[in-house]
Amino acid sequence: MSENSLAIRKFSDLANPTRFLALADRVLPWFAALTALFFVVGLWLSFTTEGDYQQGETVRIMYVHVPAAWLSMMCYSVMALAALGTLVWRHPLADVSSRAAAPIGACFTFLALVTGSLWGKPMWGAWWVWDARLTSVFVLFLMYLGLMALNRAMDDPARSSRVSAVLVLVGFVNIPIIKFSVEWWNTLHQPASVLRLDGPTIDPEFLRPLVVMAIAFTLLFFTLHIAAMRNEIWRRRVTSLRRLAARSAGREA
Amino acid sequence: MMSHAAYVFASYGIATLTVVGLCLWVIADGRARQRELRELEASGVRRRSAEATTGEPR
Fold it and tell me: Which phi and psi angles does A46 have, rounded to 5°?
């Protein structure tokens, strides 16, 4: 194999954007198909399993709310890892990854907040309360919006990437606060019932659709993230090509 | 007060709109960037690495 080969043999090979684009082209159809498959099964399970004896039909909101909330935190963790990649290893794709993830994370956080509100009204009698869990997730939503604004405000990715990475890492302190808020403080929001040290306390009837939907949402995230990263690489190529064109036009003049 | 089913459908409806909207935005963004790249290439602007090899590796 020649030096210019586009084959990916080790993780560091992904640092080459052209290699990443080739890989994205290959895996995206599979990821999209798997996502669709899991959503079909997940949605079917969500509407065919029994309702809760106390909550009735509203328990079905959980199958959207919990995966969205889980992704809102996972997406930020992916961004924090990417921020480390930018600051420590200066991985060329790290900033691309972090930038592409922010709008996706914002959408999932928005979904977690809205579906939580729609679940809270019939079950708690309130659309919103300022308890520790809800407030910390709202802060996460604001952080996503802030990062998106910052990324858009600065034209040159080379300069904005480090500022943005530092901010992402500072904001990461919010993730354990969200996770443990229901244990550290007295909240209206219930404590964890799936990811617990002593195993899930939720009935298998509800756990099955929940797990399938969580996998579907996670696959959806990775599909969108890879596609958004590809878009970001293209966007940067367009910018650098336009600069190149402007420079050569200047020389000719 | 809405019925419980209304809350469920509202949740799934908003989730569907958000997810479909996000997917469409990503697809539209990708198409627009590819169009720009094609236009630049058509006007003769090429990446330096593309000049060295056999053409623009997408």
Answer: -60, -35
| CA A194 from centroid of its chain's CA atoms | 20
Contact assessment for residue A85 and residue A97, using Cβ atoms and an 8 Å cutoff: yes
| Residue at token pair 């190149």 | A244
The two tokens of residue A116 are 């939580």
- In angstroms, the Cα distances linking B7 to A52, A149, A213, B20, B40 are 15, 32, 19, 20, 49
- Classify burial at A209, counting beta carbons within 10 Å of its beta carbon; exposed 0-12, middle 13-18, buried 19 or more: buried
Distance CA A61, CA A120 (A): 10
Q: How far apart are CA A183 and CA B47, in angstroms?
A: 54
Contact of B16 with chain A, judged by CB distance below 8 Å, is answered with: no
Q: Alpha helices of B1-58 — where are they, by DSSP H?
A: 4-42, 48-52
Q: How many CB atoms lie within 10 A of CB A21?
A: 18
Whole-structure pTM value: 0.89
Kindly state the DSSP code that residue A172 receives in the 8-state scheme.
T
Closest Cα in chain B, distance from residue A197 (Å): 30
Query: Two tokens at B3?
Result: 């019925």
Which residues from chain B sit within 8 angstroms of residue A25, using beta carbons? 58
pLDDT exceeds 70 at position A206: yes
Query: Is any Cβ of chain A less than 8 angstroms from the Cβ of B47?
Result: yes
When comparing pLDDT for A204 and A147, which is higher?
A147
Instruction: Say if the Cβ atoms of B22 and A107 lie within 8 Å.
Output: yes
HEC-encoded secondary structure of A57-111: HHHHHHHHHHHHHHHHHHHHHHHHHHHHHHHHHCCCCHHHHHHHHHHHHHHHHHH
Q: Are A231 and B33 in contact (CB under 8 A)?
A: yes
Mean pLDDT, to the nearest integer, of A186-204?
Answer: 80
**CA A95 to CA A157: how far, in whole Å?**
8
